[in-house]
Amino acid sequence: MVDRTSYRPAVAALSGYVPGEQPPPGKFIKLNTNENPYPPPPQVVEAIKQAAHGPLNRYPDPMAGAFRNAAAQAFGLPGPEWVLAGNGSDEILTLLVRGFVGEGEKLRLPFPSYVLYRTLADIQGAQWEQVEFDENWQLPNSFGESGEKLKLALLPNPNSPSGTIVSRDAIVDLASELPCPLVVDEAYADFAEENCIDLVVKHDNIFVSRTLSKSYGLAGIRFGFLIAQPDVISQLAKIKDSYNCDSISIAAATAAMNSSEWLADNCRRIIATRIRMALELQKMGFLVTPSQANFIWCRHKTIDHRSIYDFLKQQQILVRLMDYGHRGDGLRISVGTDEQIDALLFLLANYVS
Ligand SMILES: *Cc1c(COP(=O)(O)O)cnc(C)c1O
Q: Is the dihedral of CA 283, 284, 288, 290 positive or negative?
């Protein structure tokens, strides 16, 4: 008989991570999970078509060598052994927690931040502790303090839901204080003014995690990667699934590494829309946190956020309502196409006036 006592206690106690709603395509303007509103680079689509004619009866390259070479080149790394490919950066994060944080040990996170990290620690039967951002989304120095059984620190940069950034200098300081690796989750870094990739070469406890889901418009492909020193990569490679990335996604990701012009254009376009959207929201009485990502965190001065969320949903626009307990709630709105954002702003202007 299988009942609750059959499972590992850590699993039975889990409530499970709930990802953002994925409604059937076409029904909603989807501004709730920070996907790219534009289709991916054409050369990526072409590579996928070609891969479909490849030897699909054969297993893929276990280490995704073609991708690692292309990524090492694109990011100016010393070599492909500095890159680990994953089935989405969520898998990379899973491998990091699995590799570094054992039962009863500790993971450090900022708050408010990406909620999945906590679930990953819970699965391990590990503990997590949160260091709270201050009112202006600055990270206190205590994030770098050592702590008993502290084995890993995870920092999304830019952060979600705020879109704010911790500076490179601050990250170097934190890493030099910490007794454990510091993972900088750069899911949104292509939209930001700076990133930490080059720090990995000089600092053996700074790792950078990346995804193709946001800036490359490839959330449907499931591909992410880690940049860290070769020793870290080979240790983590031991605990991944043998064939964690499939031939189609490896081909897509390899082509994506060669689409820097497309990427720059796409990011410019999204940032321009983000700036316009932030200004208009402010005019409507929203307090908007300055964002370096492809989404905006905003709170209205007078109107209840749930009512705004419900109204928009009724109008077929999906945004994310987040509640952070004593930090209060707010709306995280992804930057869509200009047409999508025009529709959002038009409806909101009527609602809040
Ligand atoms: C979206 C997101 C990811 C997940 O990326 P996938 O590659 O799609 O798994 C990781 N970290 C943060 C902070 C994100 O917002």
A: negative
Options 3.40.640.10, 3.30.70.660, 3.40.190.10, 3.40.50.620; CATH for 42-259 is 3.40.640.10
Integer Cα distance of 100 and 228 in angstroms: 14
pTM score > 0.70 for this model?
Answer: yes
- pLDDT class for 20, splitting at 50, 70, 90? confident
Question: Can you give the pLDDT at residue 141?
Answer: 96
Determine whether the shortest distance from the Cβ of 90 to ligand 1 is under 6 A. Answer: yes
Pick the CATH number of 4-39+261-352 from 2.60.40.10, 3.30.70.980, 1.10.3720.10, 3.90.1150.10: 3.90.1150.10
**Ligand 1 proximity of 211 Cβ (cutoff 6 Å):** yes
Structure confidence by residue, pLDDT tens digits, 72-96? 999 999 999 999 999 999 999 999 9
Distance 202 CA to ligand 1 centre (A): 25
Which of 67, 87, 114, 117 is the pocket-test mutation for ligand 1 (most atoms within 8 Å of CB)? 114
Asked if residue 27 lies in contact with residue 20, where contact means CB atoms within 8 angstroms, the answer is no
